[in-house]
Amino acid sequence: QVQLVESGGGPVQAGGSLRQSCTASGGTFSRMNMGWFRQAPGKEREFVAALSWGGNRTYYADSMKGRFTISRDNTKNTVYLQMNSLKPEDTAVYYCAATRSGRGIDDYSAGDEYDYWGQGTQVTVSS
Q: Are 8 and 19 in contact (CB under 8 A)?
């Protein structure tokens, strides 16, 4: 069974940065497509960023382009989300997600495409 454990969330002031990590265990990480999603209070879950298992394709929600960067280190079974120029509207619980090893994906922004989810970490951006 694949487990995803996120870390790196917390409080930050507007304009600041955070780097979140998500470490996978129990699967072949290097062949997993990875994604980050978030959910703010009272809102639906939304796509943040994704990275193909080969690492050569990245995808971002429009509002995150230029501010957030997704990357992976297969030697550490870890995917990262570097978040810069944070805004109060970035406040949310952030979730890491992964597909089964080697599985293709049609829409990286669709939560239904992912098979495994982390427990989520809170990011709170104060103005």
A: yes
**Per-residue pLDDT reduced to its tens digit, 45-100:** 999 999 998 778 999 999 999 999 999 999 999 999 999 999 999 999 999 999 99
Which stretches does DSSP call E strand in the chain? 3-7, 10-13, 18-25, 34-39, 46-51, 58-60, 68-73, 78-83, 92-98, 116-117, 121-126
Please state whether 109 falls in left (phi above 0), alpha (psi between -120 and 50) or beta: alpha
The rounded distance, in Å, linking the Cα atoms of 21 and 54 is 18
Residue 23: what pLDDT? Answer: 98
- Cα–Cα distance, 118 to 4 (Å, whole number): 5
Token code pair at residue 35:
């994604």
